[in-house]
Every structure is written in C-alpha cells, then in structure tokens.
Amino acid sequence: MDHFNYHDGALHAEEVPLSRIAAEVGTPVYVYSAATLTRHFGLFRQALDWTEHLVCFAVKANSNLAVLKLMGDMGAGMDVVSGGEYARARAAGVPGDRIVFSGVGKTLAEMRQAIEGGIRQFNIESEPEMRALSELAASMGAEVPVAIRVNPDVDAKTHEKIATGKSENKFGIPIARAREVYAEAARLPGLRVVGVDVHIGSQLTDLEPYRLAYGKVAELTHALRADGHSITRLDLGGGLGIPYRRDNNAPPLPIEYGQVIRDTVGDLGCEIEIEPGRNIVGNAGILLTSVIWLKEGEGRDFLIVDAAMNDLLRPSMYGAHHDIVPVTEPVPGADVRTFDVVGPVCESGDTFQKGAQLPGLAAGDLVAFRSAGAYGAVMASEYNSRPLVPEVLVRGDQFAVIRARPTFEEMLARDTIPEWL
Ligand code: LLP
C-alpha cells in the first residue's frame, strides 16, 4: 500500500496534487511520500517485535539526507557500503552505534572513517579485509565489533544481477569455511566477533530461499558457539521484494518474513538485524515526467517523455517493469492507445516500456512511473549532460524540494580546463 492515489480526478502524493509539484519544480522529478516510508518501516519493526532487533535501512536504495533523517528519527539503523553513505547517515543524525558497514571492497580510508566516527559493526566479506581491519583497528587502539558475511550457496530466485547468495557470487565467505575464518578472527587483535551476517539477494518474491539460508545460519551459530565464540547478533540482510505490478502476485509481507526469521533463528536468543531497502522506499516514490512528443512510427507509436534512462536506469539495466500511470485520472471506458514509452537519450535502450496501454495523451501531459523510490535517484547520472533529477518529499499537504535540480552553470563549474590547453 502507498499514498499515491487519485482524488478528484488527479493523482496525488498524499494530499498534494502531482500537477502542483510539476508546476513548481518542473519535470522530471522524483516524489516521495513520508507516510508510505513511515508505514513500511513500521511494518518491519512490527514483524520483529517478538525480539530485540534493529532495522537497518539499506542506504544504497535511497540516500537522500531527508529520507535518511526521517528513517533515523524513527529509530532506524543504517546499512552503509561506502564512506559516502557513512557520511550521509551521520549527517542525517544517525549515531555510529546504529550503523553497520557492509561491502566487499571497503578501503582502509573507509574503515578508518567509520572507526573514528563510531560504528555498530563491520560486516567482513573476505580474509584480506579481516586482516587489514584488524591491523588498522589495533593501530588505532580500537576494538571493533565484527560479523562475518557468509555465503550460504542458496538460489534467491531473483534477477541474476541482484542475486548474491550463490557460491559463484563475489559476496561473503563460503559457509563451509566459516568456522576456520571465525577462529582466525577470534585470534586477531582489534576485532571483537559479535555475530553472523548473510544477504542472499534483492527483490525476493519467495520466502523459501530465506528459510534455507537462515536455517544454515542457525546451524552455523550453534557450531560457532560450540567453538567458543560469543554470537549475540545475526544480521540477516535485506532483499524482500515489492509488487512492481498492480496484479494479484504480491510478494510476501514483512510480517510473513518476520515469521520465517522467528521459525529459523528465533530460539537462538540473538539480537536480529535486518537491512531492507527496496521494501521500505520502493513504493514510497514515483518519478514524475512530462510528455514531450507523441511520435507516430511505423507500426508503433512512441510516447517521448522528459525522463530518460539516466534518471531511472532500472528498465534498461535489468529489464525492470515500472507501472506507468497518467496524472489525470482516465475516465472509465475512455479509449486507450498503445505506446512505446521512451526517453530523449540517444540509445535504443532508453525505453521504459514497450506496448504500454495508456489513455489518449498529448504533449505536456504528466505521467508517473510508479515504484521508483528505491534504486531510482541513487542510480541516476548526468548522461547526455542532463541535469541530475531533483527530489521532493511530501508529508500530508506540504512538500519540499530535498534535492534541487542543478543549473547548467553548476554542472559546468565542476569541470576544469587546464591552463596549458
Ligand atoms: N544489504 C546488502 C548487503 C545489500 O547488498 C543490499 C542490496 C541490501 C541490503 C538491500 O536490499 P533490498 O532490501 O533493497 O533488496 N539496483 C538493484 C538492486 C541492487 C541491490 C544491491 N544490494 C535494483 O535496482 O534492483
């Protein structure tokens, strides 16, 4: 459920008509609903209310400072994967002891930044990383809490580019070798082993892969405790999918996911961390765009909009589907036309949807790409020298620009022409 609905014939974000945002901010623009974000975060908390837990929002899904502050103020932790994300979480007011640091390629500079700034836990992904972190922490006189990310070799049954829990993926340490790696971790100075970490992929629409993976984590936890480690936390990653289409195939709910966690690891007495990103913010955002031209091609018509692949990369990168809806509510029974919805970028891959069924639209009309709050703005670029798409946050009847569209002057000012040229 989200808060983008038609009222009085016009699509609104909460109580704000999207046409008002388009008129004041221009298009393309991302629009987020605070009420939807709050609701989704609450559902995860509720799903884990049977135990001590921390819901760590995966910052990579949407790293706007206003979004992070909203989450942080509700008590969310943050899962970060770079020094930039760490800086954003801190700037949004999230204390270090609520930040976990994941990622296969943390640099020494990033580790130092997080140790100095405060960190809840590093999720270690390899032995070289573990040894480097130990040496750095010891040299700084610190003892940092660590979990080791294990790769359970489970098929998450999702798109190959976002599956992370198979042995062929670059993530984590093979679960079969985990005991040996934990033994080394326990011997190394500067590290304090606190838990086990796993994340098997993104946009999961089936709970069985979770059940399998978490079952393996439970077994490992017993074995590690028998080896003398104190395992007090389990970081179970993120990945719960969202409905991208308004049909009856909705993925499982957070409450059902929470039950799988309870069934598999609930009796271990561990604090549970989870790292949802998409499920919290995906359906809390839309990309609002204007029709530039209707172009009649041979055998097909094109709806050319002012958003492009650089603003929302998912369709061209993963073949992802985003529902496209007109901002003016279609009258029941109105004629629909079939369009290929495309952007202005000079690549055929700049296609959002082929064969979209939409009511009669004209140049200047507004349409919205739904489910665009996660992995939308964060993956945008300035390809074709198109200004980075701005972001707006709505709460009730108010809205604010939370990232402004850069001017051409600002874009050009980042380049330097050397004096010898
Ligand atoms: N934790 C870790 C360690 C991750 O790598 C990820 C996502 C998450 C949590 C959050 O997963 P979520 O709950 O959002 O599914 N750009 C792709 C998705 C890449 C996901 C990468 N890792 C897309 O647009 O579908």
Give an overview of the whole structure.
The structure is a single chain. With 421 residues, this protein is an alpha/beta fold. The chain folds into 2 domains: 4-31 and 282-413, Lyase, Ornithine Decarboxylase, Chain A, domain 1 (Beta Barrel); 34-279, TIM Barrel (Alpha-Beta Barrel), CATH 3.20.20. It has 12 helices and 21 strands. The strands form 3 sheets. Strands 4, 14, 15, 16, 17, 18, 19, 20 and 21 form a 9-stranded mixed beta sheet that branches. An 8-stranded parallel β-barrel has the order 5-6-7-8-9-11-12-13, surrounded by 5 helices. Strands 1-2-3 form a 3-stranded antiparallel beta sheet. The model has no long low-confidence stretch (mean pLDDT 96). It binds ligand LLP. Ligand LLP is lined by residues 58, 60-61, 79, 102, 162, 199, 202-203, 237-239, 275-279, 314, 318, 374-375.
Under CATH, the topology of the largest domain is which?
Answer: TIM Barrel
What small molecules are bound in this structure? Answer: ligand LLP
Number of domains: 2
Q: What is the name of the CATH superfamily of the largest domain?
A: Alanine racemase
Counted by DSSP, the helix tally is 12
Q: What gross morphology would you assign?
A: globular
Distance between the termini: 56 Å
Q: Rg, please?
A: 23 Å
Active site: 346
Binding site for substrate: 278, 314, 318, 347, 375
Subunit structure: Homodimer.
Domain Orn/DAP/Arg decarboxylase 2 C-terminal: 30-373
List keywords for this structure.
single chain, 421 residues, alpha/beta, Lyase, Ornithine Decarboxylase, Chain A, domain 1, TIM Barrel, nine-stranded mixed β-sheet, eight-stranded parallel beta barrel, 12 helices, 21 strands, 25% strand, binds ligand LLP
